[in-house]
Specification:
This protein is an alpha+beta fold. The protein is about 20% helix and about 35% strand. The protein contains eight helices and 20 strands. The two termini are about 40 Å apart. The protein binds adenosine-5'-triphosphate.
């Protein structure tokens, strides 16, 4: 599969510039799709900004790929509306949507050189001669693969093949780039290198990009914004920092990284903060949202890295507890501890630049009220 664009011969005086911004926002309104009894998309409404690198993140089977395929036009939604920069594309054929797609398995043609793989989409669009040559080389340069134009795909590493797949999607200048788990076949080192490369390419081209992954580290390190999905629905949209540090519900807090859930009851509410009664004692929480409950029983989430290990004499007055170290795993730059606090609360805590500690010893921990996240459910 290659980038898809409306047909017709291209006319161009100068080679393409991949720094050009092509402004295309995406709007989804009430998009739904069922497969038998499974709701793969259940009334998804979403706005994606022009030039944004937008991630769909969620566990296997939550409907990410279905949504991407609906955007590409490979799957037709049962209900809802999709617009690219105001143009309704809901019923438009895939080849008329001008989307470029990159798949997990690269899908390069094994019998064609790198150059011919990238040139194919232009050939189909009857772009020929000097212009085709220039556009292919510009796309290969953008993907840093210009030295490999004459190679066959089987003479390339996985990372290099993925760069060619990106060049092939970009060469037709799609207005929307769709990436379906593009790094999942690469080893860890290449994956992290390609994260930077894809981000750079998206930035430089300015193409609105939708990127599907179940890998939270990939989403958090690359995205402008992330939509977290669950069972066909979007449960939170925000910048990586927002979804990780201010999850709005238990699912997002749990899916993104590790956390400690602590049940508590509201004792008092004041402007901007809550005093909670938890089994280990009172907990102060700040940074509340409008929909944060101001009374009753609730759950709060505290990330392992949010716990501070306080030296004697620097003990904060609030949100500090003494516990007993149950278990400790030394990892070099950090230690992972399991600590039992009063009221049978056992927390996981991460200590950076760790002191040597032994199971059974008393440890004093505290948490900044801004790092106590009160969940709506
Ligand atoms: P993964 O990360 O495993 O690829 P995903 O989040 O991309 O998962 P989808 O592939 O969109 O999830 O699938 C969503 C749900 O729809 C799943 O339960 C899946 O089994 C179902 N589904 C997807 N495509 C079809 C199909 N063509 N026929 C029947 N069911 C389907």
């Amino acid at each position: 599969m290659i980038g898809r664009e409306a047909g017709g011969p291209g006319r161009r005086a100068s080679p393409p510039c991949y720094h050009r911004r092509i402004m295309t926002g995406i709007t989804l309104e009430g998009v739904s799709k069922r497969f038998g009894s499974t709701a793969a998309a259940a009334g998804v409404s979403l706005g994606i900004d022009s030039g944004e690198l937008f991630f769909l993140l969620g566990p296997s089977g939550c409907g990410k790929t279905t949504l991407l395929r609906i955007l590409a036009g490979f799957v037709e939604a049962d209900a809802g509306r999709i617009a690219f920069e105001g143009q309704d594309v809901t019923h438009l054929a895939p080849e008329k949507r001008r989307t470029g797609m990159v798949f997990q398995n690269y899908a390069l043609w094994p019998h064609m050189t790198v150059f011919d793989n990238v040139a194919f989409g232009l050939k189909v669009r009857r772009v020929s001669g000097k212009e085709r040559q220039e556009r292919v080389m510009a796309a290969l340069r953008a993907a840093r693969m210009q030295e490999y134009a004459r190679r066959m795909p089987n003479q390339l590493s996985g990372g290099q093949q993925q760069r060619v797949a990106l060049a092939r999607a970009l060469v037709v200048e799609p207005r929307v780039l769709l990436l379906d788990e593009p790094l999942s076949n690469l080893d860890a080192r290449l994956r992290s290198q390609m994260r930077g490369e894809i981000r750079r390419l998206c930035r430089e081209s300015g193409i609105t990009t939708v990127y599907v992954t179940h890998d939270q580290a990939e989403a958090l390190s690359m995205a402008d914004r992330v939509a977290v999905m669950r069972e066909g629905r979007i449960v939170q949209v925000g910048r990586p920092r927002d979804v990780y540090q201010r999850p709005e519900n238990r699912f997002v807090a749990d899916f993104l990284g590790e956390t400690n859930f602590i049940s508590a009851e509201v004792k008092g509410a004041e402007e901007g903060h809550l005093i909670l009664h938890a089994p280990m004692g009172d907990v102060l929480a700040r940074g509340l949202r409008e929909d944060t409950p101001r009374s009753g029983n609730l759950t709060c989430s505290i990330r392992p890295e949010a716990w501070r290990f306080d030296a004697a004499g620097r003990d904060p007055a609030r949100n500090a507890w003494t516990g007993r170290l149950v278990e400790s795993i030394y990892q070099g730059e950090s230690s992972r501890h399991r600590i039992e606090l009063a009221g049978d609360v056992v927390i996981h805590a991460l200590e950076i630049n760790p002191r040597e500690r032994r199971p059974g010893e008393a440890v004093r921990v505290s948490v900044d009220p801004a790092d106590v996240v009160v969940l709506a459910d």
